[in-house]
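agent> Task received from the user: take the single chain below, predict its 3D structure, and emit structure tokens. No templates, no multimer pairing.
agent> Plan: (1) validate residues, (2) run structure prediction, (3) serialize to tokens, (4) report one or two observations.
agent> Step 1 OK, no nonstandard residues flagged.
tool_call: predict_structure(input=
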Amino acid sequence: MEALYERDFYQWTQENARLLREGRLSEIDVENLIEELEGMGKSEKRQFVNRLAVLLAHLLKWQYQPKIRSKSWRYTIKEQRKRVTKILRDSPSLKHDLDDHVKEAYEDAILIILKETPLDESDIPASCPYTFEQVMDDDFWPE
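)
tool_result: status=success, residues=143
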């Protein structure tokens, strides 16, 4: 089974799923299965933090570059709010470490801002100026 994991990942997933359904637990590739399950959880968290970072970056752009606000920014904010909501609906346990996730996302958002705008790091607050509730509120548009 371990050789199959290295040779054909898709087939490995299908074979292990079949073995699980059939209750043939002793034949399952436990070590690689554990690794893949942990990886799936990490991937979900990464996606959540990435979506939140894009959302925070656009809220910062909205606030700190009011003269060039665009329809594109507005819809990116709306889209990311929707996607973050979906992720939390599918994985509500991500809410448990929300402060840490927001902090990590905000650090990434600052990098996005510095890359995409003429703003300097000194122009932006060092820590997130918004609560998570504000970030997710459809009526919140920072001025």
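agent> Step 4: summary for the user.
DSSP finds six helices and no strands in the chain.
agent> Done.
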